[in-house]
Design a protein that fits this description.
- Helices cover about 80% and strands about 5% of the residues.
- It has a two-stranded antiparallel ribbon.
- Helix 1 runs antiparallel to helix 2, helix 1 crosses helix 7 and helix 2 packs antiparallel against helix 6.
- The chain is globular, with a radius of gyration of 18 Å.
- About 30% of the residues are buried.
């Protein structure tokens, strides 16, 4: 997507906000999912921890694309805002540390499903750190990206993110679309390759509904 002025075409960063909203919702839901696992139910613990692992992988790809393609350009082109960009990098490091801790705790919880509280507390801290980071990024970084990055550079970030979505596993993609408005959904789908749109239409939507029921125990809202 693009925005334009009389002289140039600038990136449209709304698609990134749609992805951020997915991360906000799903990471915020994880502590309650962990606490809801019956004691000793290792099968259910494994389902919840696997869901967390898929979200963690998607978030890792998202942050890696920013580390590689966004922060260096903004540091170079907006030196007066270097402290802000460096804070974004530090927040990524903090989030990465919490992800690593939660992954270790998740492995232990999957093994016996006895005490999920340490994992739930780490996931609560992770959700809070993510909310802080994404909010500041949307308020301050995305306007900078629109000002200082070219359309091609911004599209490279989007292309990197879309390429990271497994073609045979569209769970996170489904959660992005599920939480989006109809306009946001159309916008997001318009940026996806034709093959990915077809995979979603033919197989992904049905698989997502099945996964949603398995994770949350309810039917997802129609979309």
């Amino acid at each position: 997507m693009t925005t334009s002025t009389a002289h140039t075409v600038r990136p449209d960063t709304r698609e990134m906000v749609v992805v951020h909203d997915c991360f906000r919702r799903q990471f915020a839901a994880l502590p309650a999912l962990v606490r809801g696992v019956p004691a000793g139910d290792t099968a259910r613990a494994g389902e919840v921890v696997t869901f967390f692992a898929e979200l963690a992988t998607a978030l890792h790809h998202h942050h890696t694309s920013e580390d590689d393609l966004l922060w260096p350009k903004l540091l170079d082109r907006a030196p007066t805002d270097a402290a802000l960009v460096l804070r974004m990098e530090e927040q990524h490091e903090r989030i990465s540390e919490l992800l690593s801790r939660a992954q270790s705790q998740g492995a232990a919880f999957t093994a016996d499903a006895v005490d999920g509280e340490p994992l739930a507390k780490t996931l609560t801290a992770l959700s809070a750190a993510l909310d802080e980071h994404l909010g500041e990024e949307e308020q301050r970084i995305l306007p900078m990206a629109e000002q200082f990055m070219t359309l091609a550079e911004w599209q490279e970030i989007g292309d990197r993110g879309r390429a990271s979505i497994p073609k045979d596993r569209l769970l996170v993609f489904g959660f992005i679309l599920h939480g989006a408005t109809p306009e946001e959904r159309r916008m997001f789908l318009s940026e996806m390759p034709f093959a990915a749109r077809m995979a979603w239409s033919i197989l992904g939507r049905r698989a997502f509904r099945k996964d949603y029921r398995r994770i949350y125990g309810t039917e997802p809202a129609a979309f």
